[in-house]
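Action item from last meeting closed. Structure (463 res):
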């Protein structure tokens, strides 16, 4: 019998033919690359053993299993049965002799289901930004090495399971997704605790995927705020320049509207409204033009986001001023001028979007929106319609802030402390949840997509 080499390196380093530092339980080389270290166990073991009764499958049991596959039980769809096989990996002939066959089949099914998840929950966001991002989420899961890490795989299965459970109206499957969510959180905690992986793309991707699950199936009404605050801190640790291109840009575009929704709910200024963060979006647009991916509608979307990102700060400063407190050295007149300037920009963008939505179809830019053919006129109208929803809510907020500042100016001239009522007729009220107008039980599958395309303003819309 040929002996098995006793090299003490981990299997990943052996395969790559590099020197392993043999750190346990995971070597530093694997941690630095952001991949899961397979450990130091030998891949092959030899046993001097004859086959026993347990190594054979009863032919009658095999026939019964095949019959169940051909005639599934009532009330269970094919997709649910496929999910059950994906959730619980049972030993099979393929697993024993050619493990890669079963693994590849399962991997392919998982990636396919994830694309369904993305297109069902974020249809307009994905179709708007996917042609501009390299890689987008679907390509990342399908082809990127980082998608093979344990944390991403756990988050991926968590989302897939939730989607299939909801699609098949099976609460048991949805319950399994919550169990998987717990495992994903444990993996994420380990990545965040490790200085080498704390701000990596894999950590951020895992955090964003789990945050989306938390918003889709929350543990408590405010639990999504914990995720958003943590992701915001990780984003700021890397700095804005990290999100101008690549998969980092994909992660940023996915979560940024929810960062604004978080700021609106907390009534705090958002870091996304700072000049350096707004500049990143402008640089990304310029880079798209250079690469031949730029188009009129996405430029308008980026301009709207940059203006909406100032909204949480305007809300926080106005609230402070009308309550008779100091707003960090900002005077009422200066704040009024800044809000009026931002409102003017948004109204101009609103007119352009109204043209794209079909109200003025003769606009020259609409006829030549995308020379590459990535966006049809109907698609542009869909994007414009979604953005107009959020733009209207953002303009309503600025209008009400100006009314409050003017009223406070008159009252302060009379020598009285302002006691402005913050009722529904005054200003859109931030809620304790992100759901906004989607709190009903029959909310659509793409409700997060609508919040995303509204730049987070639907989270403060009062309905």
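Sequence:
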């Amino acid at each position: 019998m040929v002996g098995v080499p006793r090299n003490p390196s981990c299997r990943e380093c052996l395969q790559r033919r590099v020197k392993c530092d043999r750190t346990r339980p995971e070597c530093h080389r694997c941690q630095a690359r952001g991949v899961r270290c397979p450990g130091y166990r030998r891949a092959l073991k030899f046993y001097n053993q004859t086959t026993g009764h347990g190594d054979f499958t009863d032919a009658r049991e095999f026939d019964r299993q095949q019959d169940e596959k051909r005639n599934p039980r009532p009330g269970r769809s094919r997709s649910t049965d496929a999910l059950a096989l994906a959730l619980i990996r049972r030993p099979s002939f393929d697993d024993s002799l050619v493990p890669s066959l079963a693994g590849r089949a399962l991997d392919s099914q998982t990636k396919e289901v994830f694309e369904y998840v993305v297109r069902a929950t974020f249809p307009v966001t994905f179709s708007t930004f996917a042609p501009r991002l390299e890689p987008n989420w679907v390509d990342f899961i399908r082809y990127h090495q980082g998608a093979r890490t344990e944390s991403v795989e756990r988050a991926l299965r968590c989302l897939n399971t939730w989607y299939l459970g909801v699609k098949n109206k099976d609460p048991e499957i949805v319950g399994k997704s919550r169990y998987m969510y717990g495992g994903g959180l444990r993996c994420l905690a380990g990545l965040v605790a490790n200085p080498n992986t704390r701000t990596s793309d894999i950590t951020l991707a895992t955090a964003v995927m789990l945050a989306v699950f938390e918003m889709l199936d929350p543990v408590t009404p405010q639990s999504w705020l914990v995720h958003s605050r943590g992701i915001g801190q990780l984003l700021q640790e890397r700095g804005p320049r990290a999100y101008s291109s690549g998969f980092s840009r994909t992660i940023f575009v996915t979560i940024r509207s929810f960062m604004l929704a978080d700021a609106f709910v907390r009534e705090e200024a958002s870091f996304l409204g700072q000049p350096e963060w707004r500049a990143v979006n402008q640089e990304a647009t310029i880079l798209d033009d250079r690469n031949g991916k730029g188009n009129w509608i996405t430029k308008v979307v980026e301009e709207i986001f940059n203006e909406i990102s100032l909204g949480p700060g305007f809300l926080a400063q106005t609230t402070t001023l009308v309550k008779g407190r100091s707003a960090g050295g900002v005077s009422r007149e200066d704040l009024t001028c800044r809000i009026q300037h931002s409102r003017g920009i948004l109204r101009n963008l609103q007119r352009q979007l109204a043209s794209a939505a079909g109200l003025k179809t003769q606009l020259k830019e609409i006829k030549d929106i995308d020379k590459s053919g990535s966006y049809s006129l109907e698609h542009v109208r869909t994007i414009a319609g979604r953005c107009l929803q959020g733009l209207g809510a953002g303009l309503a907020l600025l209008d009400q802030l100006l009314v409050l500042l003017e009223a406070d100016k008159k009252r302060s001239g009379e020598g009285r402390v302002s006691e402005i009522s913050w009722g529904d007729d005054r200003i859109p009220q931030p809620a304790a949840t992100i759901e906004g107008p989607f709190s009903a039980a029959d909310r659509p599958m793409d409700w997060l997509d609508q919040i995303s395309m509204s730049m987070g303003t639907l989270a403060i819309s009062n309905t």
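Note appended to the action item: The mean pLDDT is 78.
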